[in-house]
Amino acid sequence: MLFGGIGRTFSTENDRQYETIGAFWDELAAKYGRSNLQGLGYGWTDWSIEYVIGLVRGEIDGVNRAVELPDTGWVMVRGRTADLGKIYEKIYQEGRLEYEIERFTDSGDCEIMYCRSTDRVK
Q: For every residue of the chain, which 3-state class applies, written as one string?
């Protein structure tokens, strides 16, 4: 599966990525609508994360990244955006991720799909 969109590298120092990725979402939500966006996180280091925002439906202007994703091995979690910290706390209890795809709605719902390298079918 190919995930394409607008990609940026964000600092993870002092958990700075939450604010900066949130601003990135707000910027693109103003143009495309929040519920039509999906964000892909990958390539974590101790200092940064790669993050790409694409559309659920349609073509986003300014595509600068395409990431090949596994077709299998994904786990889905649904919940409320207000509980996002708790959702991720539970997800990360089992270890680091290789990829995560996030979707949010203006009504406060979220959907997280994630894949660990050990989840992949070899």
A: CEEEEEEEEEECHHHCHHHHHHHHHHHHHHHHCHHHEEEEEECCCCCEEEEEEEECCCCCCCCCEEEECCCCCCEEEEEEHHHHHHHHHHHHCCCCCCEEEEEECCCCEEEEEEECHHHCCC
Count Cα atoms within 13 angstroms, Cβ side, for 53. Answer: 24
Dihedral, CA of residue 94, residue 95, residue 98 and residue 99, to nearest 10: 50
- pLDDT tens digits, 22-33: 999 999 999 999
Predicted structure pTM score: 0.91
